[in-house]
Amino acid sequence: MNVLLKSCVALSCISLLGACQQAYKTEQQQYVDKGKAAEVWPEIVSDVKQDPIIEKKVEALLSKMTLEQKVAQMIQPEIRDISVEDMRRYGFGSYLNGGGSFPNNEKHSTPQDWIVLAEKMYQASIDDSIDGIAIPTMWGTDAVHGHNNVIGATLFPHNIGLGAANNPAMIEKIAQITATEVMVTGIDWVFAPTVATVRDDRWGRTYEGYSEDPDIVKKYAYAIVKGLQGHAGKDFLGDDRVISTVKHFIGDGGTVGGDDQGDNIATEQELFDIHGQGYVGGLTAGAQSVMASFNSWHGKKLHGHKYLLTNVLKEQMGFDGFVVGDWNGHGQIEGCTNDNCPQAVNAGLDIYMVPTDAWKPLLENTIKQVKEGVIAHSRVDDAVRRILRVKFRAGLFDKPSPKNRLFSGKTALIGQQSHRLVAQQAVRESLVLLKNKGNILPLKPSQHILVAGDGADNIGKQSGGWTITWQGTNNTNEDFPGGSSIYQGIKSQVTKAGGSVELNVQGEFSQKPDVAVVVFGEEPYAEGHGDRSNLDYQRGIKSDLALLKKLKAQNIPVVSLFISGRPMWVNAELNASDAFVAVWLPGSEGKAVADVLLTDDKGQVQYDFKGKLSFSWPKSADQLVNRFDEDNEPLLPYGFGLRYGEESLLSDNLNEQSAKVSADQSYVNLFNGQVSKLWQLNLIDGDDQKVINSSTASLTHVTYRTIDRNVQEDAFTLTSSDATSAGLSMTTGNGFREDLTAAHEAGNYLVISMRRNSGEIKSAKVQLSCESIGDERGSCSGNVKIDKTLNHLPLNTWKNIAIPLECFAEQGVKFSQIVSPFALLVAGSNSMSISNIDYRSIKETDQAVSCQ
Ligand code: BGC
Ligand code: BGC
Predict the structure, then answer these.
(1) Contact assessment for residue 9 and residue 629, using Cβ atoms and an 8 Å cutoff
(2) Cα(820)–Cα(818) distance, integer angstroms
(3) 28 pLDDT more than 60
(4) How many angstroms separate the alpha carbon of residue 466 from the centre of ligand 1?
(5) End-to-end alpha-carbon separation of the chain, Å?
(6) The CATH number of the domain where 213 resides is what?
(7) Cα of 405 to ligand 2 centre, how many Å?
(8) How many CA atoms lie within 13 Å of 113's alpha carbon, on the beta-carbon side?
(9) Which pLDDT belongs to residue 694?
(10) What is the Cα–Cα distance from 457 to 448, expressed in whole angstroms?
(11) Which residue has the higher pLDDT, 713 or 181?
């Protein structure tokens, strides 16, 4: 085994982090040395060679462009924030639709609606009447498991499931189908594949990765890029292909604690050996774009990392396509805001992804910065040269307009049967059999089968995040025309074979079943919303375990089908199951699960299990483990997966003792000048509400305004006049539930750092809300009055008010399912300021409030 890989595993051990950081610091100076890149990073020989004819065309066009036209190529706004007229006026080089963003803001937009928008944007971009130049724009979209923003598209298993299938040839086919369906809607470019090598399964994007092993990631990256873009010298970026993006450069799967957008502290060699392999595969295959990552490397954000973006990626590895940013990722660089960030371009970013209305000031600021010499003209030319090179390679100057392209409008191709068959094959190959006591599987379809669990007939749940909506929440089976649930597959095969099926989420039945198939697992999530403090499945809820046990108690054999975006600690659920299958996030073709689970009507196996774990499976909730970690045995190793007839290894009495939460897992910051990334802040006045997204906001009886406590805008003042119930709330937006159990379990407090400025507080209460699932489904909330405490505060003095989280739990708040971790509602005419809101342990200087 590679010694470097071995040593990097030790890195995931927290106690060594300090030492690594030290080591990094002493090496830091060397990073400025361009030559150093060559010691670690290879030169990549891309299958796509530079074409002198194209290079000439690029130079000719570039020489005719004004500065304004060039900078417009570098700005990528989002469809919710620009009009077709903006496109005509500015001529943006590209634009995107984010997750859950559709033409006309309509979830049920038809493929035709997508084409209409693509056509209008294209025509506006080549209309030179206002901006003076005709350069076709490009539309980019997150087609990350099929064309997943479009109703009716074929949805493939998420990457984690594809990794378990370990079949590069199939992956190439999947990518080509995705390209086809994307092209039906007139779109040119996809933000896939994600080539993260995931090293901490607590990360909410674990399912977007193929494996903890860079080897699969590298092979897959190569195959997918070929499938999306075609083969150099043959069908490369031909009429049936789209531009692909390897993302997120670099180290997104290796952040400390699995923190989304967090910090990766690997050494440079590890960065290449582990997190760089997807780029080796993808860039060799000729990927034309690379997306910069939100994460940092040793504290420095990738969007502003000149060494990695320019010296390593472009110079050493020889990448000649363009680097696109991630969702306002440039705004996270120290010293930058969404609308002002020369640092990113200077570091090597070629296209700013700039959703929200920041695009306009960003465009203007960038032009000004070039004029003032803050950004060199040559850097802009380099960026635009790269963008134009890709556009020429993709034939955008020659291809017909979006509505007239090969597949445009051929709506029958969206979700076409032959596409679904490939997705079904992928589902079958991705399933991993973890336990099969007494060879209970395969099931004969001629029996009476109970299908239970809230994942059984739930295509949204089985598809996970990045499914029609960004988070994959709020979808129903009707949103998946042509798709099927896991239950539907079982039902149709069993009925055909003369057996019978009962579907009941809670596991009730009218006729005692021969066997129960229980489908359960994680609710959909995307990005940081999926970050977890440990891998305990249904921590603090355990309603699925109760369901399994209830069935077992009635002597019904139980087959568990576990839907999840990562391996999880499910020892108790395994103990309560006779058979246990990791189904990951299979996508729209749930019915294919039955092909493997059931024999044909003659009792013959139809398809055996093929999937093997591409991630090690943990034996405790806090075990962070991967295959290179020799001293840390997982429950089931990388590569594990039973086939029919093989002996099941797991006993029925795996350790069910849950892990203790450590202090670092229990601290939650909600507000520190800015609302923390998982939440939005809303202003409330009685029934009136609005999202706060700038430095001031007001409703009739209440005003919000940012102020400076220690540094600029690190606090806000809330002024109420004659209010009966006004204030603010922090929410997850779309009803998403966050798991804050760790904070509660650790005995923490909700601590609000506040100051009373003036006026009398007639009443004031702090409120938390949750939306519970399982047996106690419904909304729940709890509140604590703090008016007495506030009225006793000396005016104009900052104080930390600390309320035990237990006060809210006593009133029924479930910390595993929080939709609002904080709200403050006041009555009267008064003014107060807040600078910090945290869930943390209490300190001496805090003023504790009792539950009443
Ligand atoms: C994600 C990217 C995605 C982009 C556009 C970002 O938040 O990190 O993976 O391509 O949004 O939706
Ligand atoms: C947007 C999505 C987008 C995501 C990227 C969300 O706020 O609604 O469209 O993909 O951010 O992080």
Answers:
(1) yes
(2) 6
(3) no
(4) 10
(5) 60
(6) 3.20.20.300
(7) 29
(8) 14
(9) 82
(10) 18
(11) 181
Ligand lying nearest the CA atom of residue 252: 1
Do 440 and 537 share a domain, yes or no? Answer: yes
Q: 764: which DSSP letter?
A: E
Quote the CA–CA distance of 156 and 567 in Å, as a whole number.
19
Per-residue pLDDT tens digits for 320-367: 999 999 999 999 999 999 999 999 999 999 999 999 899 999 999 999
Atom 11 in ligand 1: which residue has the minimum CA distance?
327
Q: Using alpha carbons only, what angle is made at residue 598 by residues 595 and 604, rounded to the nearest 5 degrees?
A: 100
Pocket test for ligand 2, best of 252, 327, 357, 736 (most atoms within 8 A of CB): 327
**Among 470, 678, 734, which residue has the most ligand 2 atoms within 8 Å of its CB, making it the best to mutate?**
470
**345: part of which helix (H) or strand (E)?**
helix 342-347
Kind of pairing between the strands at 778-785 and 515-521: unpaired
Query: 715-731 and 702-707 as β-strands: parallel, antiparallel, unpaired?
Result: antiparallel
Q: What is the C-alpha separation between 388 and 377, in angstroms, rounded?
A: 16
Residues 495 and 520 placed together within one structural domain of the fold: yes
Quote helix, strand, coil % in the chain, to nearest 5.
35, 20, 45
**What average pLDDT does the chain have?**
93
| 618 falls within a domain | no
Does residue 244 sit in the same domain as residue 283? Answer: yes
328 and 464 in a single domain? The answer is no
Q: Which ligand 1 atom is nearest residue 470's CA?
A: 12
- At position 191, the amino acid (one-letter code) is F
Which atom number of ligand 2 is nearest to the Cα of residue 97? 9
DSSP count for the chain of H helices, then E strands? 26, 30
810-821 confidence digits (pLDDT tens): 999 999 889 999
The token pair that represents 661 in the structure block: 């939460």
Model confidence band, residue 19 (pLDDT cutoffs 50, 70, 90): very low
Cα of 184 from ligand 1 centre, angstroms: 22
The answer, yes or no, to whether any atom of ligand 2 lies below 6 A from the CB of 332, is no
Q: Catalytic positions, please?
A: 326, 527
Are the CB atoms for 656 and 692 separated by under 8 Å?
Answer: no
**pLDDT tens track for 477-516:** 999 999 999 999 999 999 999 999 999 999 999 999 999 9
Can you name the residues that pair with 78 across neighbouring β-strands?
Answer: 96
Q: What's the gap in Å between 329 CA and the centre of ligand 1?
A: 10
CB burial of residue 797 (10 Å; 0-12, 13-18, 19+): exposed
Contact 523, 461 (CB under 8 A): yes
Ligand 1 neighbours (beta carbon < 6 A) = 98-99, 142, 191, 247, 326-327, 527
Burial string for 415-435 (b: 16+ CB within 10 Å, else e) reads: bbeebbebbbbbbbbbbbbbb
Q: Answer yes or no: do 67 and 19 share one domain.
A: no
Counting ligands in written order, which one lies closest to the CA of residue 248?
1
Report yes or no on 495 lying in a domain.
yes
Lowest-pLDDT range of 31-40, 390-399, 775-784: 31-40
Cα–Cα nearest to 406, from 146, 115, 120:
115
User: Which are the contacts of 428, defined by CB distance < 8 A and separation ≥ 6?
Assistant: 592, 593, 595, 596, 607, 610
Q: What is the CATH number of the domain that holds 795?
A: 2.60.120.430
d(CA 468, CA 454): 20
- C-alpha closest to that of 269 among 649, 640, 11: 11
Q: How far is CA 133 from CA 66, 89, 136, in A?
A: 9, 10, 10
Instruction: Give the number of the ligand closest to the Cα of residue 691.
Output: 2
Domain span holding position 339: 35-412
Give the range among 237-241, 596-600, 691-695 with minimum mean pLDDT. 691-695
Cα–Cα distance between 461 and 53 in angstroms, integer? 49
Contacts of 816 (CB under 8 A, 6+ apart): 538, 539, 540, 541, 737, 739, 740, 741, 770
